[in-house]
Amino acid sequence: HADLALYQAKSTGRNNSRFFTPELALQLSERLDCENDLREALERGEFELFYQPQLFIESAALMGLEALLRWRHPCKGLVAPSVFIPILEECGLIEPVGEWVIRAACRQHRVWQVAGLRPPRVAVNISGRQFLRAGFAETVARILAEEGLAPAFLELEITETVLARETEQCIETLKSLKGLGLEIALDDFGTGYSSLNYLKRFPINTIKLDRSFVSECNTKSEDAAICAAIISLGRTLGLKTIAEGVEQAGQLDFLRNEGCLAYQGFLHSQPMSAPKIAELLRGRQPVAAVEECS
Ligand code: C2E
Ligand code: MG
Ligand code: MG
Ligand code: MG
User: What are the strands, taking DSSP E only, across 137-194?
Assistant: First the structure.
């Protein structure tokens, strides 16, 4: 059949590109360079955390800060996590780097506290491999104790794809983590093999609406319907809902109307360095004091 022939021709065409071309050789060697650089990045202190504010929609008060990893490469400058996280995962470096991230976020929180600021909860992204590793909850407990941070100040973000694998082990790990007193958020909700069953079975606190739905929530009826359904479901189940990637006032209006609890996005701010966050927290102090008196 003509369709089939075309289909097969296309797939052979695609297969051809798998031959080891000079271009591929270059890609591979760049990749190996990158891997080697990443191995040394931790010791050289090239990793850094940025933080993006999360705000309550009703009051505009600060609800939390999401820690986002950056790599300050000596030549390439600031490298985004989408570039190097997959490499860290493949070459087995995600565990040490992931541990560094948790520790750095906890330590930074304490630094802000000691400076007299009152930082809200900090959210840390956890990769699937890191989460599924035996002893993960114990590692988190140890870091919290060593850094002297109250667990209530920490939130861990995991994705639904993690929950689809090794379900029993996941539930155990989540229970242990929640037993420590920290919170769990389901990141990028709706993009994976979402199963509404997860929301019932897994002890989580928050669902994060993925940016891919939020970005068109005020312009496309399908995305509006998906956002509205997720918010309503979250509310009904007693979960907090937070929208990510809010860039426009129109999107925020939509989310407010639907009863979404909180948001983060360029509309309020980009992820910022720790000193910038300190400025933000300092600016907020008088407001917090007034709230306390009333
Ligand atoms: P994520 O956890 O879903 O984080 C949200 C991403 O959206 C961040 O990208 C953030 O900078 C970006 N973002 C926030 N607001 C807006 C907006 O209004 N518009 C647009 N276009 N983008 C916005 P980033 O920092 O590049 O991180 C990308 C992903 O890398 C994260 O997605 C997360 O999955 C992963 N990641 C970041 N840090 C870590 C980490 O420490 N550990 C692990 N395992 N993964 C991390
Ligand atoms: Mg996240
Ligand atoms: Mg996300
Ligand atoms: Mg996302």
Answer: 154-159, 183-189
Give the residue from 108, 106, 36 showing the smallest Cα distance to 272: 108
Rounded to whole angstroms, the Cα distance separating 47 from 255 reads: 34
Among 55, 68, 132, 187, the mutation site with the greatest number of ligand 1 atoms within 8 A of its Cβ is 68
Any atom of ligand 1 within 6 Å of the Cβ of 81: yes
What does the block give as tokens for 133?
């590793």
Ligand 2 is an ion; residues with CB less than 5 A from it: 125, 157, 187
- Class of residue 159 by CB neighbours under 10 A (exposed 0-12, middle 13-18, buried 19+): buried
Do 266 and 249 form a contact (C-beta atoms < 8 A)? no
Task: State the Cα–Cα distance between residues 35 and 267, nearest whole angstrom.
Answer: 35
Tokens linked to 266:
């360029």
Other Cβ atoms within 10 Å of 177 Cβ, number: 23
The pLDDT-based confidence of 167 (bands split at 50, 70, 90) is confident
- Kindly report, residue by residue over 222-235, the tens digit of the pLDDT: 999 999 999 999 99
- For ligand 1, is residue 68 a contact (CB within 6 Å)? yes
- The more confidently predicted of residues 4 and 114 is 114
Report ipTM (2 d.p.). Answer: 0.98
Tell me the C-alpha distance between 24 and 122, whole Å.
40
Task: Report CA-CA distances (Å) from 25 to 30, 37, 84, 86, 253.
Answer: 9, 18, 19, 19, 50
